Amino acid sequence: MLSIILLSIFGIVVLFLGFQKSKNILLPATLLCIAIAFAANFVHWNDAPGLYFKEMLFENRLTMSFSAIVLLSAFLVVALTRGFADDEAAQPAEYYAIILFSLVGAIMMIGFDNLIMLFLGVEILSVSMYVLTGSDKRNLRSNEAALKYFLMGAFATGIMLFGIALLYGATGSFNLTDIRGYVGTNSFSISTLLYVGLLLVLIGMLFKVSAAPFHFWTPDVYDGAPTVFTAFMSTIVKTAGFAAIYRLLSGSFEGIYNFWWFTLAAITILTLVVGNITAVYQQSFKRMMAYSSISHAGYLLLSLTAMTAQTPDAIVFYSLAYSLATVSAFGVLMAVAREKSVQSHENAEDFEAFNGLGKRNPLLAFVLTVSMLSLAGIPLTAGFWGKFFIFGTIVERGNLIWMLIVAILMSAVGIYYYFKVIIATYMKDGETGALRVPPFYRIVLIVSTTLTLLFGLIPKLLS
Amino acid sequence: MNLLLLIPLLPLVGFLINGIGFKHIPKSLVGVIGSVGPVVAFILSIYAFGAFRAGNNAPVIIQLFDWITVGTLNISFSFQIDQLSLLMLLVVTGVGSLIHIYSIGYMSHDAGFGKFFAFLNLFLFFMLLLVMGSNYVIMFIGWEGVGLCSYLLIGFWNKVTNYNNAARKAFIMNRIGDLGFLLGIFLIIQTFGTVEYLPVFEKAVGMSVGDSAIAAITLLLFVGAMGKSAQIPLYTWLPDAMAGPTPVSALIHAATMVTAGIYMVVRSNVLYALAPDTLEIVAIIGLATALMAASIGLFQNDIKKVLAYSTVSQLGYMFMALGVAAYSSAMFHVITHAFFKALLFLGAGSVIHAMSDEQDIRNMGGLRKKLPITFLTFLIATIAISGIPPFAGFFSKDEILAHVYEHNKLMWALGVLGSIMTSFYMFRLLFLTFFGDFRGTHEQAHHLHESPISMTLPLMVLAVLSVVGGFMNVPHVLGGHSALATFMDPLFANAQRANPALFEHGHLDHSTEYLLMGVSVGAALLAMGAAYVLFISKKNVPAADGQESGLQKVIYNKYYVDEFYEAIFVNPMRKLSDALYSFGEFIVDGLVKGAGGLVKLSSGQLRQLQTGETGFYVFAMVVGITALLLWNFGAIIFK
User: Fold this and answer.
1) What's this model's pTM, rounded to 2 decimal places?
2) Where do the structural domains in chain B lie, given as residue ranges?
3) ipTM over 0.85
């Protein structure tokens, strides 16, 4: 819980740092803050699980692992914002502060033990994301994306809040443990309000993790937002969102698994199909990544639907693998697109941007290849084990093999669009001339790629 | 014991440094970087050996991490240090170090110097993984890794098509064997639920002799050994593998990698003890290989080919020993063979180096004066491999033949026949190369020179080992204590518990043992005499290609086994492949393209939903929510 307090303080400190003339200190300072929060996150690693702030928040090794993934991804993504402060009109201090605050929201979503905290966390994170999406103030698409995200997000939040109210109406409490108690003791006379409430809260959360049919905002927002915040959204928001759904379902509603599993299964299948199939047609790398993120939400939902003892481990591993690969992919895109947008103002985020990258910069090409292989789930990358563990939970559940078949078919479709990137990188001719990459980028990319390969070789490292 | 981790790690570091930086590291450093790892690993191995002997002789397991956990199967990444792995460690790092040092001189003129050392280090890493692993999966990683390095190094001079073909042949032949090994591992998992050596063997002890699952496992593992250790019918790749640089032939294709099959069988001795039928097959295949390869060796004219067939033949002896459950004798021969065969190859390399890449012994002769050190060491190795006392080969080969005699007298007789041939072709090689008059071109004669010290030093070290190597296991009958056998005894305790009958045979009395020794030594000397008469007194030189006649022609052409394989397996496979290709084009491609087209089509349709209008998005959400509510609560609403 220390990390929440620290991050809140750090956010304010960074805001104050913004009064300085020199903006150069902001990035290192923010990175330092996140690093400290990361370390503080592990303070209670060896302690027994605990409740904090009058049973509002909960902490055990699982929530700490999720928080660690969120903070690690944030660190890598923030490191990629170098050069962000160069724009005169930008006000980097505010953005960095918002990033730090949004992390508070994410960690609250991970560790909530009270539905109020869930709502608060979701809102802190979401509102931050609305602002960050629109941070490219003079770009019309960025503005449009922010407004769209906000309108639809507000709608989803309303539904979720309604659901929370219904849950309170049925059980008389916001507390996860109390709700669990209610479900357990009244197993024959559970109020219909509870069922409806659960469904609405779930819908609100599924919107946040962009599950179909609540995914429509995703491609437009991912496409419009500055790439670095697209990376932020697709890693941190997703990880926090899935942690929250898992905590909600396992914390209170395991007793009525028979009620919600089929709804979740249907949404899972729909998400997998829509995400993977639509991604095939995309010309823009960013839009492809948006649909790919929808499809990955599908895989994570798969494990939630199974809800076995292995589910939390599987989700943790998958989130980590997915986050690392996503950061790499967007990092390469930014490095390539930055170069391109200097030369011309056409859309620099199509697949063609990667043409000939293998010759222009072998390192970037390699990073991108590993990241795509990991997302596609090819062995020797972390993504393979992520999928393996997720599928393992489904096998363990036993009666959901049909979902597994769909998932495997869909991951075969995934190979098509991920490999399209690799083909562009190595087999198509594009511009020539070496591509220079700032050292900061290089370090981030090497770190995330190394981790992807390391976890691919030794998945047990994480435990 | 954590220093042990450095043993495989050091060559890996060497590989990474030379492999990544070979364009930037100066040539003088490459060799040093490449050699330091193996040498330090060797020193560490000696240290480990000392520490192990000082301890209680129980296997030490070094657990690195849990690697794969699936259901109840847990495969850990861990090493096992016991008598067997220590012996292999010493051989691999010891001989490996010498050959690395040798390569500094031998490869000095090669453009791919850095690449060569990188590959050699990588090979050593995988070989160490193979012998140190504490379960079959780690062994398999090493097994595949050394196969890969073997492929890379056979085809090291990849501009020559023939060499590439040789590399490919080695790779594919090994693949057949690997499939057997892999299936064997699967069956082990199925039968025992684990792949760790100790638990597997512990469980196996309780099973009955002749158990069908064990028989299948041992047979499949043996198929793997056939590929890697070049036994009939998968031996034809090894002679072709001589296309690689000579140090590679010495290290990979004589001293270490090809003995992996023997290591594996010795490692699994409990399982093999439970499968007497498999042992019989192993013995017969070993014997057949030993004889066949030795007979081919009689007529080869390429200095390295002779040695290659000799290797195949000696490996056959080792399998014969395994087949009669003389596990420690097989290991003994692995060790002595590593000494003298590495020495022979390195000596041959020195000759080839001096002769400006000439390998045909018909064009050599009289080299003993120009290459005195090479000649002397080569002579020692020849005596050693021929089994003439008191050199290393005598003790190990004699021990094997004595065990075979206990098992089956006919096999023993054939084994002695093989050793007669061994002695003959080795002395033929020696005489044709180093004695008589020089038969090469004038230019070659002009260039003749003894090799540099980095090459002759390993020769001398190996020569000393070839002389004294046999004394590590002097049998009781000659006043020794069978030190090596005693050291290895704990390895076979489980096997003796599982199948006591296998190890119960009447001990030979001393007079019989003396007689057996006398016969084999006499036979070897006789063959040497014959070679002397033919190639020194009568100054015979083998006929030019295509002029052989009768049986000689058949043997010179290696019994046409390659052609036979070509006709029976390769060509029908090609035809089938062509047929399937034309069929596959039509049906499989149609299916694949159809499925792809369908996905693309639906993708195009689904994409239309993404209109960009917020109103529509919200509408879609509402539809979704309504559908979910209706699905879940429709019954209540419309009641």
Assistant:
1) 0.78
2) 335-543, 557-608, 614-639
3) yes
